[in-house]
Write a structure and sequence with these properties.
2 copies of one chain form a homodimer.
Chain A: E1 4-10, E2 13-27, E3 30-35, E4 40-51, E5 56-61
Parallel strand pairs in A: 1-5
Antiparallel strand pairs in A: 1-2, 2-3, 3-4, 4-5
C-alpha cells in the first residue's frame, strides 16, 4: 500500500497529524488531507516535502 | 513500491513529466522532483493534488 503519514513541522519537530493519507490537496494556505477511509483533515500550512519511500508528507506550518 | 508519476496540467490535459518519482519538493514557484535513480527534474508550477492510490502527482503550470 502506498498511503503515507502526514506531519507538520513545528519548531524543527515533526508532529504527526494523520495516518494512512491517500490524497493531498494544497489550496490557498491550507492542505487538505484525506485518508484511506475518506476522513478529511485540513491543516494550515503548505507542503514542504514529500518522501514517498519513507511514506512521509511534511507540511510546514503557516506563519 | 510507492513511487508515483508526476504530471503537469496544461490546458486541462495531463502531460507526464517524470516516472518513478520518490521525492517532491515545492519551493518558490518550482517543484523539484527526484526519481528512484536520483535523477532530478525541476518544473515551473505548484502541486495541485496528490493521489497516492493512483500513483499520481499533479502539478499545475505556473502562469
Amino acid at each position: 500500500m502506498c498511503e503515507s503519514a502526514a506531519y507538520i513541522l513545528k519548531e524543527d519537530k515533526l508532529e504527526r497529524v494523520m495516518e494512512n493519507v491517500v490524497n493531498v490537496d494544497p489550496f490557498e494556505g491550507k492542505v487538505y488531507l484525506t485518508d484511506l477511509l475518506g476522513e478529511q483533515k485540513i491543516v494550515d500550512g503548505k507542503i514542504k516535502e514529500i518522501r514517498l519511500m519513507d511514506h512521509k508528507i511534511i507540511i510546514s506550518e503557516a506563519i
